[in-house]
Amino acid sequence: MEEQVLNIKGVEVTLFRSQKAKSLNITIKxxxxxxxxxxxxxxxxxxxxxxxxxxxxxKKHLSKMQKAEELFTVFNxxxxxxTRTHHLELKVSDTDTLKSVVRNNKITxxxxxxx
Length: 115
Description:
Blueprint: E1 3-8, E2 11-18, E3 25-29, E4 33-39, H1 44-53, H2 55-71, E5 87-93, E6 99-103, E7 106-112
Parallel strand pairs: 2-4, 5-7
Antiparallel strand pairs: 1-2, 3-4, 6-7
């Protein structure tokens, strides 16, 4: 898949060629950022120009997505997380598979060790 990553006025934008797209589509999603699907009938140069024209709209909606990202809880081995009846425990294991066990008011998630 043909792809270009651009910085337009401080915003990282990924342009990618799409066989399915009928028109230029700008998508902004949490943790994914700004992606522009470019149909085969439009050049990357024209797609870049169209994206530059819409950069104010992109920035406005990008700030909303960044706020949405802040609402997500990112778990690591030190995260303390408690529901009304359970608490979460993350463990690194020697196995290759993810395993979860709920027992005695504890949710234990065993994650494979990253190599």
